[in-house]
Amino acid sequence: MLGKMLELLKGMAPNITRAAALFNPATGFYVPGYLRLFEASSPSLGIELATAPVHDVSEIEDTVAKLGHEPGGGLIVPPEAFTITHHKLITASTARHRLPAIYAYRSFVGEGGLMSYGPDPYDIFRRAASYVDRILRGEKPSELPVQQPTKFEFAVNLKTAKALGLEMPPNLLALADEVIE
């Protein structure tokens, strides 16, 4: 998923040469491992990857400001509890510092974020109901298979793109499940 996010961000903002993943190490401890997995795709895109760990709310603005003042910067906001909880602050900071960013959930785009790519949470909730049913009928949770998300959403905010001076490429527009104007 993070590799696709990086590809979409580069497609929207072709001048990006560096991208950082914003996350809280206490709640997104898995993010550095995921970054290592898709670093293989970054050379073909010409993007240097980095982490942008934040430990509390006070660090968000400073981190985004630093990334926004460096030329060629972009931001990836992976799915984790801290970034979801503080999505309004993160989207406001990226707008204030004119930093192209991609988020894991569509709700960020509704708040003014540039774009999102991630699993459809409603599909996950619907599928979880069958697991609850199976457990209540006596199946052992440890014997149930792990399910990966199967439905992903791509949303873009054209108003935010325009504010950042970005033009939505037609190929990305055609891929979008939702376009906010």
Describe the structure.
With 181 residues, the protein is an alpha/beta fold. The protein folds into two domains: 2-119 and 151-180, Rossmann fold (3-Layer(aba) Sandwich); 120-150, no CATH class. It has helices at 2-12, 31-38, 42-45, 57-69, 81-85, 87-96, 106-110, 121-136, 158-163, 170-175; strands at residues 18-23, 48-53, 73-77, 101-103, 115-119, 152-157, 178-180. Strands 2-1-3-4-5-6-7 form a seven-stranded mixed sheet, sandwiched between helices. Helix 4 (57-69) runs parallel beside helix 6. The longest helix is centred in the last third of the chain and has 16 residues, at 121-136.
Shape: globular
Figure out the total of helices: 10
| Major sheet details | 7 strands, mixed
Which structural class is indicated by helix and strand composition? alpha/beta
Count of distinct structural domains: 2
CATH architecture descriptor text of the largest domain: 3-Layer(aba) Sandwich
What structural keywords apply?
181 residues, alpha/beta, Rossmann fold, 2 domains, 7-stranded mixed sheet, 10 helices, 46% helix
Provide the fold topology.
Blueprint: H1 2-12, E1 18-23, H2 31-38, H3 42-45, E2 48-53, H4 57-69, E3 73-77, H5 81-85, H6 87-96, E4 101-103, H7 106-110, E5 115-119, H8 121-136, E6 152-157, H9 158-163, H10 170-175, E7 178-180
Helix pairs in contact: 4-6
